[in-house]
Amino acid sequence: MTADAFLLYGTHAVETEPVSLRAGALSADFVNGNLRTIRHGGIEVLRAIAYIVRDRDWAPTSRR
């Protein structure tokens, strides 16, 4: 990662490469448990779908 990327994103962490998924005319990129860039016939129809998991007290599970 270049110094410019650090200034832009504030981290040296590198995002994992997306896994490309395809089902007929639908395609999407799967990154870190989220669907991104959902396309139909090559045209982007949704930017992302993410899910949030919460415990029984409605707190995000990452707070444990």
Give a verbal description of the structure.
This protein is mainly β. The chain has a domain at 18-56. The protein is built from 1 helix and 4 strands. It has one helix at residues 3-9, and strands spanning 19-23, 26-31, 34-40, 43-49. The chain has a 4-stranded antiparallel sheet, with no helix packed on it.
What's the helix and strand layout?
Blueprint: H1 3-9, E1 19-23, E2 26-31, E3 34-40, E4 43-49
Antiparallel strand pairs: 1-2, 2-3, 3-4
Mean pLDDT: 85
Low-pLDDT ranges: none
Order of helices and strands: HEEEE
Report how far apart the termini are. 31 Å
Question: What is the 3D form?
Answer: flat
Q: What Rg, in angstroms, do the CA atoms define?
A: 16 Å
Strand arrangement, major sheet:
1-2-3-4
Tell how many strands the DSSP assignment holds.
Answer: 4
Kindly name the structural category. mainly beta
**Number of H/I helices:** 1
Determine the strand fraction and express it as a percent band: 35-45%
